[in-house]
Write a structure and sequence with these properties.
heterodimer; A: about 325 residues; Alpha-Beta Plaits; 2 domains; 6-stranded mixed β-sheet; 4-stranded antiparallel β-sheet; 11 helices; elongated; B: about 475 residues; alpha+beta; 4-stranded mixed β-sheet; about 60% helix; about 15% strand; binds adenosine-5'-triphosphate; binds magnesium ion
Amino acid sequence: MAVIETRDLRKTYGTLEALKGVSISVEPGQIYGLLGQNGAGKTTLIKILLGIVRKTAGEAELLGAPAGTVNVRRRVGYLPEDHQFPYYHTGRSLMDFYGQLYGVSPDDRKRKIPEALELVGIAGRMNSKIKTYSKGMKQRLGIAQALLHDPDLIILDEPTDGVDPMGRKEIRELMARLKDKGHTIFLNSHLLGEVELVCDRVAILQRGEVVREGTVAELTKATDKFRLRLGEGQAFPTDVVARLGYAVAPLAERPGTFEVTLASGQTIDPVVRLLVEGGLSLRELVEKKESLEDVFMKTVEGAEPGVDQKVRTVQQVQRVRAVGGEG
Amino acid sequence: MTQFVAILKDSFREAVDGFVIYAMLGLSALVILIVGSASFEPVEPDKAFQSIAQRFNVHFPNKGASRVVSASLRNENKYAAQDVAAAGDGYKLRLTVKARSGTVTNDEHDPAGGDSFRKAVAAWAKPPGSTVKAADLAKSFGGKKGEEAAQNVPDIELSFERNATPEEQRAVTDADMAEFLVAQFRTHAGTSATVARAAGVAEPEYAFDVTAAGGAAVRGWPHKMEMFFGAVTVSEGTNLGQVLWIIEDRIINGLGAAVLLLIGVIITAFFIPNMMRKGSIDLMLSKPIGRTQLLVYKYVGGLTFVFLVTAFTVGGIWLVLAARSGYWDPGFLAVIPILTFQFAIVYALSALVAVVTRSAIAAMVLSIGFMLFLYVIGQVKTLFDVFRASPRPERVPDWAYNLVDGLNNVMPRYKDLDKLTTKMIADGTLTDAERIVPGLTAIDYPSWGATFGVSLAFIVLALVLASWRFRTRDQ
Ligand SMILES: Nc1ncnc2c1ncn2[C@@H]1O[C@H](COP(=O)(O)OP(=O)(O)OP(=O)(O)O)[C@@H](O)[C@H]1O
Ligand SMILES: [Mg+2]
């Protein structure tokens, strides 16, 4: 049974269609990433799952219960975006308060709260008022409160927002550990590199529609391009390689490095053999894959513009063209 | 239940985070201290009983059951207390009465009749007979002075013992006299007494042996009251109950309660809007708790907070007042639940405004406005009721009466709750005479049922609307 299941989920705010028929399915034990530009509808989707906003049409299920069911929320941990914790709490008292709401027993709270805060690295400040916390500390607290009651599903809306690089790494590791323990994680993020590192599956949301969906491996498939570099002072035999029938070109951004593009049916092996047999020393051989960022950029560029900014850019481009007379 | 306690504790944490609550508790502590600085020194027993005996010319017919004030205009009977001595918990004394003989009415004499004391006892045992309104009597003195006096007298009826016939006066027994005097001690001093007629004096003079129970801490015992640990003398010989009444009702239940409610409204106005702020509400709504429940818990959290502050303040004042005066009046404690209920009315509106506008300022301003509005409606209604009962009702057009009556009928009975606490405090402190003579018992007290019923209906309605709005809106 899927942990999250939506079918043709729709949401309109007034006249604005925030979700236009989203169908996704998240299996237990996965880390699932939802990508998309600002305003694509990622947060809206999460809020519907938790019953914070009401869906307009379609179906949404969480752990087998209709989204918004009070009791199912006991088994979900949630880190909202732009959260404002009650300023009058300390980190510890807030965790205690939320723990009580989730029905965590007093003994468990006593034990788990310092543990969870330790895990996100703010145990040292747990008795200070939240109003004295830095942005990243609040974010870490937000993650801790989403884990406290040992939920089956953890929903994180931009978990690394405001967290320093070290902290981001820690959070990635934490997610991997949670996954190992059998938790399912659903995550929204703009940091594509990060998503690529931790997620099993991703969906790209564009103006309320899922435009790409699949495992990270599926999306970032090989591109039939190889990067090669020879030892210091050795000249790359461009002509010879080209005569073999391979497209080859020097990489402008990395002097001394060449890119070989395979045509269909070709492998890189003949090129490697040629170089080695020619007495040249191969220092670098990298099969170029598309990064998630490439995939995302391509997807997004192909689609309709997502936010105002983009529209303006297009207009500017048009204006520049008009001025240049290329029109 | 755990969730409820958790939200309650959260509300408390929020309340004690600001300085307002400390200012408020400080103010409460100060008031308790000031009240505690009051000292109540009973007047010496012989003077006190002398003072109490002077009041006996006023009585209430039908053996005290009537609210009509009966008196002889000329204070015909001269009551005096003598040989006052402590006896056990109470006092022993001799009460003497010097009456005028042969009195039938205030004007007629009948040598065959009894005397003015027998007449008083006989009239006391009967229904009042012919009565006159105090205001009409004042007017009958004539002229502008009379008119003015009529405005100022309480709304009571008077009777003048004219209905005790000579036969009835002669039929009065020693036991009747004793019963009358026992009732007078209760009515004028709030103390129970045993009375037996003593021999040795000839009519129209009488003597009685009296034992009065209770110490000096009884309602009608005159006390010297000082403030600030004796620095200021407030009164030399006012009845203890009167002083307590002024402190409890006029100062604490009147002024103090208004301040307390105002500060309570200000502090609690933030609870719901803060929860509903962007960024906070998602955190709350993602917890396993329903929205209606959340709202109701928050509402009850506000109530509990005000209840505790009220209990601290009123309870503290009650304790020091009782400790300093020796008189324990549990009626004053009724202020705690009633004040909380008054707050519950205003806070229901505050919750509704908070859910609709999400603004603490709006909730605060509208709640205070609503409080004022209810107060004014109540005041105008009271005033109109007086107008209506007066001989010149044409002062106000009919539609104004109807408007105020209508509003008063549908609005929560904020002012009525004030009246009811006033009554409870009066019942707990003042002697019967002190309540009947100023017309306090002649007031039409609102019924508890209607007062609470209509107010409760309002609270429920406001909360249902708030909860409906909260549930149907996307956050
Ligand atoms: N309460 C609301 N009322 C009206 N419109 C809303 C509301 N919440 C979101 N929207 C609109 O719905 C669309 C999707 O918003 P959403 O917050 O889901 O985007 P997002 O993908 O999470 O964006 P971001 O990356 O900036 O967080 C946006 O156009 C937004 O303006
Ligand atoms: Mg978002």
